[in-house]
Structure formats: structure tokens, C-alpha cells
TrEMBL record:
CDD domains: retropepsin_like, RT_LTR. Residues 355-534 form the Reverse transcriptase domain. This is Gag-pol polyprotein. It comes from Trifolium pratense.
Length: 713
């Protein structure tokens, strides 16, 4: 494809590529492809010969669009039959020169690997990136069902990649062999049948959007050294390859914004040994301090200063089960080399785990994983285990984790708080004895498996949250909020805090849990919790995060702009019109353009710093009170703020903003407002369902929302 500006005929032409490679274009070798390219001008084809069988006329009418929700750019995703398998998530891509099957789909169909043939070549994506292809297979593929069915052999290049939203991509070879005509508007495909009729395949629009959404998700938390793909990825009931971003500890998203004291703390001794100390707020009244210290000393056995102080939670209460799919073959990873510093750290950590009886040696394991050493901020090493393969073989536990906004709202505007952290939280839960041998990892000299639930397992966070829901079933939402192993005790009146603390510690004792005294702080009035500062005034922005942006120099690369945008996203609840403020930053990230930090970017950056110097204080909504929503839209972004009237004063609750995407920028102003209301109602669903919300606007949004078919959006 060639792009040429009409106003400048002398400008150099720019090549715009598509996905290329495979058996098309003359073959694999460069000589064959050159010969094929020259044949257009050197070979003579006879015109006017009558085909052996008449080809029916194929056309599309508005009837073909029935059942298709109006759209601008949904892809065509269909289902095909290969042998005895119904394969969903098949993308029709007329820009691809090859028919591609992903390795996960091949394995999920339980096809014999003897059907694979060697292939030497590469695929070139539209970005120019080359994907090495080693094998291909030829399979009978059926398009359509019953009277619309058409079956022929398709030659698939089998691509091994760890992440994909589709099982198969049908390119031009199969598309032309089918004789298909495509309508992306009506999401359907028609093709001639052997009986002279016309077959039709309708795309699955809902599945297409799910695939597109999945393809845009950022894959993260993948340990280094595991870039290559290993077989055995399970599929869900929709026939899609399961790739989860929660394979590791779900708390990792908040590692840098879990609770952290703002006010000054003092260490107090609560045990007989000098090192048996914990943290107490310095602003406590002497009477409150005496009551809290008394309770802590009475319950000193509920704190652990070393692993041997920690008994396990009884197996009758909970154990962690893996539920490994029997269809997945065990994977034994190849041992990776480590440096001397990491090697010494592994030996030290394994010794600690053995002394605490967390691990034991095993021979002839079926599953075997490598150790991954991660350096912490304090310079020490954290030992993790690469359970990537094991996690792929386990179904996802759908136990719901708490909503962060609900937790923050629930813990704000209380006069006294106490924050508690479980000691080596996950390790307090035992592994199911039948699953323990599957958690084997390699040390420097031996192989060990865990007797307790280790960090890094796919569903460890869900298992621990389930335990916390059971332990604190009577307190959560009343005088306690919990996220995994982080607990915040909240009290309206300072003089009653010791009663709430004693009540919570009774539940801790009942289930034999242990707390980490070094990470606990009792009787404080302000503290960072999950990235927000909780005070008696309300919800405040984390001052460290604000200062991090204020101290930033002007970005000089795309990576630094991305870092800036990530920091803005962490503070988005406090930022008025953040989409508008960040618009110029997004503009500097446009692909295929040289990075430029324009003057408007610098001006927006200065304004952002000025705003963050004194960010607003938000509040939680009062039950039963009416909420008011203000909307603001521009040609670039839509924004809103949710407020509540308290004593004739508007109290801020939540800011929401985002830039306009694609065709949204071409909407009319009233459509922009309607879109903003829909987006915000989905984002703040918990507030809209619990309160009456009044939208402040002079535009007739109500009429537009009552008749969405008028705009076909």
C-alpha cells in the first residue's frame, strides 16, 4: 500500500505494511517470492474462459444487519469446526497473508503432534516485528453449519506465543479458497456453496468485543527467564486461551501504597523481651494510651517476631487447594543459573523456611519450578518461585476481592484508627496435603515443596481473603475493613477504640492467627492505606505521590512520559479534569513519530504541579443523602465531579475524567454529555445504586438517553 500526499507529488513514498509471510507470495524462499512478484508482468492469462461451475452473485442488504448492534470498527470473529472440535474466537483478517493457528488452540484440540510439519520462515507483523514459525499443519476445516457448511483443507502456520486473544486467524489463503465476500458493517461473510447456493456466517459481536478488550490488556508480572512459551495452557468454556494477570500475589498492585504512618509513632514494649515491641500513635491521650497498651500486653501471644512464633491455622478451617486440570501435563522447568550473591541469598532463605517447617525436601517431583530473586527497596533479597506453569494448569478462583473505593470510603472520617498486618500472612495457611508436592522448587542443592501456602500461587489471594471473611465475618463493614492481610480498625469516638481493638483480637485468637508487630500501628488519626491518606477530615491524596510528580523534571523520553501518566492515574480520583490535563501528554506518545515535548506539554505539566501543591480533600457520601453530578466536556475529554451537600456546602466525593477515543471526538456536544454520563455511571456504579443522583445540566440528556436509536450509538 502506498500513501502519497496530493499537495506534494515530489515527496518520497512511504510503505505501509500488513502482516506478511507464510506460504503466500510464491513460497518461503526469497527467490521464489521474487519470481512470483515478476510473474505479474511476464505471464499471460487467458480471459473469458467459462468456469467449470457457475458462481452465484453475492450481495448484502440491510437484512444482513439484523441483530448487529451499530458499530464503527468491530472485527469479524466466527466459529469453525476442525475435525470434531468447535473452535471459537476465529478472527477473519483479509490483511494477513497466512492462516495462523496458535499453539494453545492446537493443544486444546488434543491433536497428535505427528500432524505437525517443519516450516522454515517468519511472519512479519504490521509493525515490522518478525515472529519465528517452526511448524505448520494441514487440517480439514468446516465453515458454516448444516446447509451452509463448506469443508476444505487449510494449511495453518502454528505460532507459539504466550498471550493471544484468538485461537485462529483466517487470512487470505483460506479466505480465497472459500470464495468468501466479507461485510464488516454487517459482521457477516458469504461464500458460494457446491450446490450453487450461497452460504452465510454471522460473526459473534459480543465475543469480538471481548477479544478486542482482552488484546489491549497489559500483560505483567511475568518472571524474567520465562519469555518462551510452554504448552499446557487451559481453556475456558468459551474456547479461549486463559491468560490471567493475577497469577502472582494480588497485593503487588498496592506494594508501594499499602498502609504507612503519617503521624509520628512511638515504640512500646508489650512483651517480657526487649525486642517485643510494636507501634503506637504519639497523639493519644494518656487514658486512651493506657487502655490500648493494656489490651496489647494481654494479647502479646498473638504477635509473632519470628516464623517459629507462628502456629498454623487449623486445617479444618481452611487449606489451599490447587485443583490442577488432569488434562495438563506436569512441567519441570530447566534450572537457571544464578550469580553468587543470589545463590547465597537463596541458601539463607531456604534455611529459614526449613527451620520454620514451611518446606520439606522431596524426591522425584512431577512439577518443578525455578526460584526468582527480587531485590527489595532496603537492599535485601526476596525469594519468589516461578509458578507460571503451575498457575496455567489451575482454574481461577472467582472469590471476589474487596472494592478499593468501598474500603477507602468505609475507613475515612473516623477519629481513631489502628492498622494491623498479618505475619507472613499466606504462610499461615497450610497446603492441601495432596497438592503440596506440586509446589516443588529448586534450591542450590535440593528440591523442596511447601507445606504452607506460598506467595505466587494463582489463587493464594482469594484463599486468604476467604479466610479473612470467615475470621472477621461479624466485624467487616462495622468496625473493621480488610484487604487480603491488611486490616484497619475504625472508631467514631476515641474513647471506644480499645473496645473495638479487643473485639478484633478475640477473633484473631479464635482462629489462631498471628500479627506482625513491626507493621502494626495502633491509635493513630492519619495513615496511608492502599494509596490514600485516611484522616478524620476525609480522604486525602498521598502526599508522597503528589511530591513525586512535583519533583519530576520535564520528561525527555517516551518512557518518562509513560511514568508521568502512571503517576497521574494513581491520583485520578483527586484530579479535576485529569483527561484534559493529560491530553497533551498522551499526544506526545503517538507511535511512529519522533518524541517531542511541545510547549503545550510543558505548560500542562506546570499547571498539574500547581494543582498538586494543594489537592482537594474528598469525603465519603452520607447514607440516604442526594448526590449531585456535574459534567464537563470538550473536543478532547469528558470530565465529571460527584458532590454532596452538607450543611449548605458542597463536599467533593469523586472526580472522573478520560480522553475521547476514536469516533467519540466526532460526536455532537449533547452526545458527549450523554456519553460522559454513561461512562461515569458505570465507573461509580456503587454510588448510583446506593443514592439518588441528580445531574446538573441545561442540556436535555434525558431525552437522548431515552431514545438511543436516534443516534445509532
Amino acid at each position: 500500500v502506498w500513501v502519497l500526499h496530493d499537495e506534494d507529488q515530489t515527496r518520497a513514498r512511504i510503505a505501509v505494511n500488513t502482516i506478511a509471510g507464510g506460504f503466500s507470495g510464491g513460497g518461503v524462499s526469497s527467490n521464489a517470492r521474487k519470481k512470483y512478484a515478476r510473474s505479474v508482468t511476464h505471464e499471460i492469462y487467458l480471459v473469458g474462459n467459462t468456469p467449470s461451475s457457475p458462481v452465484p452473485d453475492i450481495s448484502f442488504t440491510t437484512k444482513d444487519g439484523q441483530g448487529v448492534f451499530p458499530h464503527d470498527d468491530d472485527p469479524l470473529v466466527i466459529q469453525v469446526q476442525i475435525l470434531n472440535c468447535d473452535v471459537k474466537r476465529v478472527l477473519i483478517d483479509s490483511g494477513s497473508s497466512a492462516d495462523v493457528m496458535y499453539w494453545e488452540a492446537f493443544k486444546a484440540m488434543q491433536l497428535a503432534e505427528e500432524q505437525l510439519q517443519p516450516y522454515v520462515g517468519t511472519l512479519v507483523r504490521f509493525s515490522g516485528e518478525q515472529v519465528e514459525v517452526m511448524i505448520y499443519t494441514t487440517l480439514l476445516t468446516t465453515f458454516g453449519e448444516e446447509e451452509n457448511a463448506k469443508t476444505f483443507k487449510v494449511r495453518y502456520l502454528v505460532v507459539k506465543t504466550p498471550f493471544t486473544s484468538y485461537n485462529i486467524i483466517i487470512g487470505r489463503p483460506a479466505f480465497n479458497a472459500l470464495g468468501a465476500v466479507l461485510s464488516t458493517l454487517y459482521l457477516s461473510m458469504k461464500y458460494p456453496l457446491d450446490n450453487g447456493g450461497v452460504g452465510t456466517i454471522k460473526g459473534d459481536q459480543l465475543l469480538a468485543r471481548r477479544c478486542y478488550e482482552s488484546s489491549l490488556k497489559i500483560q505483567h508480572k511475568i518472571p524474567s527467564g520465562n519469555a518462551g512459551y510452554r504448552s499446557g495452557c487451559p481453556t475456558n468454556q468459551e474456547g479461549v486461551n486463559m491468560v490471567d494477570s493475577e497469577d502472582m500475589d494480588p497485593r503487588e498492585e498496592f506494594q508501594d501504597r499499602r498502609f504507612n504512618p503519617i503521624e509520628e509513632l512511638e515504640q512500646i514494649q508489650i512483651g517480657v523481651e526487649p525486642h517485643q515491641t510494636t507501634n503506637l500513635g504519639r497523639e493519644l491521650l494518656p487514658t486512651d494510651k493506657a487502655r490500648i497498651v493494656k489490651i496489647l500486653k494481654e494479647n502479646v501471644d498473638l504477635f509473632a517476631w519470628k516464623p517459629s512464633d507462628m502456629p498454623d491455622i487449623d486445617e479444618s478451617v481452611i487449606t489451599h487447594k490447587l485443583s490442577i486440570s488432569p488434562k495438563i501435563k506436569p512441567v519441570s522447568q530447566r534450572k537457571r543459573k544464578v550469580g553468587e550473591e543470589r545463590r547465597a541469598a537463596i541458601t539463607e532463605e531456604v534455611t529459614k523456611l526449613k527451620e520454620a517447617s514451611f518446606i520439606e525436601e522431596i524426591k522425584y517431583p512431577s512439577w518443578l519450578a525455578n526460584v526468582v530473586m527480587v531485590k527489595k527497596a532496603n537492599g535485601k533479597w526476596r525469594m519468589c518461585v516461578d509458578f507460571t506453569d503451575l498457575n496455567k494448569a489451575c482454574p481461577k478462583d472467582p472469590y471476589p476481592l474487596p472494592n478499593i473505593d468501598r474500603l477507602i470510603d468505609g475507613a475515612s472520617r473516623y477519629k481513631m484508627l489502628s492498622f494491623m498486618d498479618a505475619y507472613s500472612s499466606y504462610n499461615q495457611i497450610k497446603m492441601n496435603p495432596a497438592d503440596a508436592p506440586h509446589t516443588t522448587f529448586m534450591s542450590n542443592t535440593c528440591n523442596y515443596h511447601y507445606n504452607v501456602m506460598p506467595f505466587g500461587l494463582k489463587n493464594a489471594g482469594a484463599t486468604y481473603q476467604r479466610l479473612m471473611g470467615r475470621v472477621f465475618s461479624e466485624q467487616i463493614g462495622k468496625n473493621l475493613e480488610v484487604y487480603i492481610d491488611d486490616m484497619v480498625i475504625k472508631t467514631t469516638e476515641k474513647g471506644e477504640h480499645d473496645q473495638d481493638l479487643a473485639d478484633i483480637l478475640k477473633s484473631v485468637r479464635r482462629y489462631n492467627m498471628r500479627l506482625n508487630p513491626a507493621k502494626c500501628s495502633f491509635g493513630v488519626q492519619a495513615e496511608i492505606f492502599l494509596g490514600f491518606m485516611l484522616t478524620h477530615r476525609g480522604i486525602e491524596a498521598n502526599p508522597e505521590k503528589c511530591q513525586a510528580i512535583i519533583d519530576m523534571r520535564s520528561p525527555s523520553s517516551i518512557k518518562e512520559v509513560q511514568q508521568l501518566i502512571g503517576r497521574i492515574a494513581a491520583l485520578s480520583r483527586f484530579l479535576s479534569c485529569s483527561g484534559e490535563k493529560a491530553f497533551h501528554f498522551f499526544s506526545s506518545l503517538r507511535k511512529n513519530e519522533r518524541f517531542i515535548w511541545a510547549p503545550q506539554c510543558e505548560e500542562a505539566f506546570k499547571q498539574l504541579k500547581e494543582f498538586l501543591a494543594s489537592p482537594p480533600i474528598l469525603t465519603r457520601p452520607m447514607p440516604g443523602k442526594i448526590l449531585y453530578l456535574y459534567l464537563a466536556v470538550s473536543d478532547r475529554a469528558m470530565s465529571s465531579v460527584l458532590v454532596q451537600m452538607v450543611e449548605e456546602e458542597e463536599k467533593l466525593i469523586y472526580f472522573v475524567s478520560r480522553t475521547l477515543r476514536g469516533a467519540e471526538a466526532r460526536y455532537q456536544r449533547i452526545e458527549h454529555l450523554s456519553l460522559a454520563l454513561v461512562v461515569i455511571a458505570r465507573k461509580l456504579r456503587q454510588y448510583f445504586q446506593s443514592h439518588k443522583v441528580v445531574v446538573k445540566t441545561d442540556f436535555p440528556i434525558k431525552n437522548v438517553l431515552r431514545k438511543p436509536d436516534l443516534a445509532r450509538r
